[in-house]
Queue: 3 jobs
Job 1
Amino acid sequence: MTSEDTAFGSVALDLMERALDAQGLRHTLPRRTMLEVVAGMGRPFTATELTERVAGRDPHIGRASVFRLLQLLRGSGLVERLHGPDGELYTLCLAREHHHHVTCTVCGQTATFSLEDDRAVARAVERIGFRMEHHVLQVFGVCPACREHTEEPSR
Ligand SMILES: [Zn+2]
Ligand SMILES: [Zn+2]
Ligand SMILES: [Zn+2]
């Protein structure tokens, strides 16, 4: 873990604590444990991975508690659900403004980006008679680290 990851983790932990406080939820030790694990994940994770890591810290915290927390965090917008290479993934995401995710098909890591002309999405559906309410757009690709490992250097 780099110091950058650790800094991100503590900012994320603080934001998650505050979001749950705002929903009137009590501070409990299991809650703190689960949040610390989420903050330390470092990359998108499956609900099963999260449950296993949490159980490694405290075997008394079950799947139901982990799922309930994930739903609360999704409600606060700090955790997002993404499509991963092999199914559903959750990711901690602190971006507040409208954005999209690009997810690596090799390692599952994700990054955010924005479109230069985001209104183009609304216009495209207006052309077929829809009025857009919102959109979710996710791109798949190969991240810089995986490209380095998988692509032949060009000659
Ligand atoms: Zn996001
Ligand atoms: Zn990758
Ligand atoms: Zn958009």
Job 2
Amino acid sequence: MASSVWNDNKILRKWVLKNQKKFFDGNFNFDMMDQLSDPLLEEISKKIGVDKNYIYVGAGSSQFIPTLLSLKCWNRVFLATPEFGLYTRGVSCYKDKKDIVEIPSLSCHDFVEKLANYKSSKNDFLCISSPRWFSGEKFSMEQIDTILHCFSGVILIDEAYISFSNEPDGLINLAKENERIMILRSFSKKYFLSGLRVGYLVTIRDMKDFRNTLLPPHSISTYSSRFCVALLQDEKILNIFSNTIEYMKNNRNYLYEALKDEKNLTIYASEANFITFVVANEFYYKKYSDALRGLPGIQSFHLQDVYFIKIWIADLRFSQIVVERMKGVQ
Ligand SMILES: Cc1ncc(COP(=O)(O)O)c(C=O)c1O
């Protein structure tokens, strides 16, 4: 079973060893350069085809989430729940209860329908993940259009898992033409680099002061920055990640096909690097959690009255074991 692509793949291990001295050269000072000349910003800008003035690089998407939630300009913050804890926990640090609108939604369809019942203003802020943190389900373009139509404020679309979807370019192009859309991206999932803390935000909104909250040395480390610049410049290495992602998508789809008709489970077609099983009730939740005990990459949740188990995709053997164990539950 794969523990880490960076450890398990010989070419990647060799690449890190070869470049280690360059990344970690003993000079730990920060070069207080003009922020727009940051080599990582330039590299990301080339890769995604967005002017660097509209990209903000930070220490993981996690650096952006609380910062964005805490901006004074928002009237109310809307969330589709269950959602990633940095949103649900973060928002309660910055907003009074009355200014938080949580919309419990199991499917994207469910959310879009419910959102239409709420009035909003241009100073409201909606955060959604797509693919969703909860289920891996991705909002369709039609659903995003409907959201844009019925919600009047600014929409943050967190695309942490987008590389595992069928449209890995995501909605960057929409953010390039619509200042109500912000896109958040992470290096943690696509490049399996969660420990290096690298992410970025794309928006054409006027956010000048915002860049000053991301000033080095209080954001991304020199090591991570050098590592990611070298990575983005190396097509051969990038290719390894494309192949790994394709392999994982197959292993995820295998799980979906094998278990989609199981009684007591609801499975959404995930476009992320995990798959979620929503379990009918507490009794089966315990049974399935017990059946999967001891396997790596299993997370069980009971949030907002929903029982669900997230399975982080690995190799084919792992998917097969999960299927065997889950099918054994009576
Ligand atoms: C939806 C979502 N956004 C953001 C993050 C955090 O990403 P990063 O590692 O770039 O901070 C996660 C991590 O699990 C996530 O699920």
Job 3
Amino acid sequence: MEYIVEVKTGTKDYQVIIGNGIHYGERIAAVRKPCKVVLVSDDIVYGLYGEKTEKELKEYGFDVFSYVFPNGEKSKNLTTAAELYEFCAQKGISGSDLFVALGGGVTGDLTGFVAATYLRGMEFVQLPTTFLAAIDSSVGGKTAVDLKTGKNLVGSFHQPVLVLCDTDTFSTLPKEVFADGMAEAVKYGMIKDKELFETFEKGDFDINRICKRCVEIKAEVVGEDEFDKGLRKILNFGHTVGHAVEKLSNYEIPHGSAVAIGMVIVTRAMESELEDKTMTNRLLKVLEQYNLPVSCEYSANDLALQAVSDKKRAGSTISVILPECIGEVKIVPMTMEEWNSYVNKGV
Ligand SMILES: NC(=O)c1ccc[n+]([C@@H]2O[C@H](COP(=O)([O-])OP(=O)(O)OC[C@H]3O[C@@H](n4cnc5c(N)ncnc54)[C@H](O)[C@@H]3O)[C@@H](O)[C@H]2O)c1
Ligand SMILES: [Zn+2]
């Protein structure tokens, strides 16, 4: 079964098409006349799906130039971006040509960033091949690269013109990479959709329907708050502590695992105020069911401090996303002192 989700933002409307065996060339040709395509992919994904993608694009008249970089977060930086700019300039890529990102969130974020800035902005298409990229990073237009000091510090809002999610590509994903995406999927259930959460509890689901539902939620939130000024913050449920876990582990603990731990800590911290006292346990069970960690070795004080390390000024507040019940969260401003005692309750 194929699904189409319409994303409507202030800057661009586009479709996310989710299905099995999607013909990339045919679908891109439906929105763009033949042109030069810069196909960006990491070495692993290119090895698996690069040739097939090139062939499909060429079949529909696109002139393809493939740029392949070493896989992993360590490539999501300005050095790779600069190499890609030079590659494009050497191939004579002009403003009416197209970027296509084939891969996970690293490829999508990097390609989106280069597309946003090369020749002051070019169109790009996302072909997500990880579960996380399909339900999260490929939709919403946040693009970025990392600096040595921290992740995603240089970036831009730049929406794609089309997202094609062929879930057949998930068959080659390593288990841990799939689990990373699962943490974000559980997050969508926690923030907006009790039924989705219950589907995960049952454990038997159709991956295309799940991707569709998660993308619908992301599209709804981004449609209301494209530039992250208010509602979009709810997508950060579990992420404030999650980012601290990632940093404290020196990025050894992957993002999804860190978010899983973060969601557990903020939910447990709220438990005394929640009507549903089973909530933390239900969350723990679901995450464990999908091979995600639910605790870490770091102290509450370290987690609380690391999470706000850039905002330690006295009197400043942070926005924390707190659960109310499964399927609902609220955004609450907290002082540093409140935040510290809150994390202490959750660890
Ligand atoms: N822009 C956003 O809104 C947003 C949201 C969430 C995360 N992100 C970013 O996304 C990145 C994480 O994304 P990710 O988890 O997809 O990481 P990733 O792109 O590094 O992919 C993870 C690993 O899986 C491999 N891989 C990808 N697809 C595969 C496939 N089909 N079969 C086999 N192997 C495959 C990759 O080569 C890589 O080694 C982070 O940089 C994060 O900051 C961005
Ligand atoms: Zn995330």
